[in-house]
Amino acid sequence: MPNLRALETFVKALEGGSIASAARHLGITPAAASQNIARLERELGTRLITRTTRSMALTEAGERYLARVAPVLAELEKAQSDLSLIHGELQGRLRIACMTAFGRHMIAPLMPAFAERHPRIELELQFTDRHIDVLKEDVDVSVRYRNALEPGMSVRQLAAVPRVLCASPEYLRRHGTPQTAQDLLAHSCLLYRLDRDGRFMRWPFVRDGKKIEPQMRVAAVGNDIDGLVEYAVAGGGIVWGGSFIIQRYVREGLLVPLTLKPGRKGQLQFQNSTLDFFACFRDRQYVPAKVRELVNYLVEELPLRKELVWP
């Protein structure tokens, strides 16, 4: 009978696309993971994986073996997860990935209470705006906004966050307060650039119901929304950001929210919208108990956060 840890290493390496990914999942070194697979191959008397310095691929024997053992391992993991829920003690590593600003302001403050409720869970928080491959990076739950969702993932909505245009009192004193969408084009605007694909998060200008991209006066571009908000606080221009970031600055009098008058037919409009966040997980068929518990917790707690309500 092959060693269970060696079998798990083999399956996780193929699921994640690398031996390093399997090592991260199992909490061991890549060298130990490689030794586990080599041990499995010796016990079976056949090569399962062909490796190069940059890639790995299944042999014909490896393909057949993986097809038989992967479902068995999945059932074992499911049984262990369900049993831990029956005993009321969820346990094991739970890796959460989230876009930086939402993770910093909204997810991190909620985690101590979750950890206290489940002391045997080992939390790992990964806050980044780059693309996360949940399989290769072995992420249990990925929190993303709508435009970053991928087809085929199981998702559950967590929050719909209002977005707010605002500027510092000093900026408005010096440059005046824009009254309409057309007025915005004459002001210094601060644009957020997405790390995942390098595109700007375009402001939602429309004319007669059609999206357009008018020429804007861009004062600065940044890949960190918190940095752009601080830029606005210092009088550098107008920023468009989620209420979970903006609200504190408004309460403290450091930023002033802007309310634009609707234009007449044929005129430029600013069509504001919410920033919708979702919990994403890998397997549509089976969601581990610890993942279900975390997502239920976030669904319960996030709508209660005053930072998500505007005004």
UniProtKB/TrEMBL annotation:
Pfam family, one: LysR_substrate
GO biological process: DNA-templated transcription
Classification via InterPro entries: LysR-type_TF_proteobact-type, LysR_HTH_N, LysR_subst-bd, WH-like_DNA-bd_sf, WH_DNA-bd_sf
SUPFAM superfamilies with a match to the protein in the record: Periplasmic binding protein-like II (SSF53850), Winged helix' DNA-binding domain (SSF46785)
Annotated keywords: DNA-binding, Transcription, Transcription regulation
Span of domain HTH lysR-type: 2-59
GO molecular function: DNA-binding transcription factor activity; sequence-specific DNA binding
Family per record: Belongs to the LysR transcriptional regulatory family.
PANTHER family: HTH-TYPE TRANSCRIPTIONAL REGULATOR (PTHR30537), LYSR-FAMILY REGULATORY PROTEIN (PTHR30537:SF17)
Name of the protein: LysR family transcriptional regulator
